[in-house]
Amino acid sequence: MPAGKIDVHAHYLPEVYRDALVAEGQGRPDGIPALPDWSEAQAIDAMDKLDVRLAILSISSPGVHFGNADAAAALARAVNETGAQITATTPERFGFFAALPLPEIDASVAETRYALDHLGATGIGLLTNHRGMYLGDERLEPIFAEVAARNSVVFVHPTSAPQPTGGPKLPAPVLELMFETTR
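^ thats the sequence. predicted structure below, dont judge the formating
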């Protein structure tokens, strides 16, 4: 096993999440050409080649909320349980950041508690905005309080702005994700 790096920006694409993305018309999120293949074996092979000892898995943009609060909560739970299963199978190689059904605050607080207390999540993953709710929004305080009470961590990943304006016809990650990180 490599003795080296810890990768905290390692995306995974569980089948349940891939299926949900496709069902919601998100097969090219943020303008990427296609959803990539992902498997534990592929990830470990890449980690070995890059001298990565441990990868903390997270899902990427656009997150789990596609407009339906109940579906978002169910998808967050399914994604997190998959992350916990992967971590339990190979804890020396993987951890995971829990996905939350934001902007649903009560459901996100509940999922934070469940993921950190019962699933063994390394922390929570947040996007730079959740359907227009940015990280400085005071409504997020109960979630940050749950994380702080457990001395855990928050991983932040950029996503597209709620209503991208004109500009060059490039996939959103080319420019927008850098701007979104700054916002």
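The CA atoms of residues 31 and 170 lie 8 Å apart.
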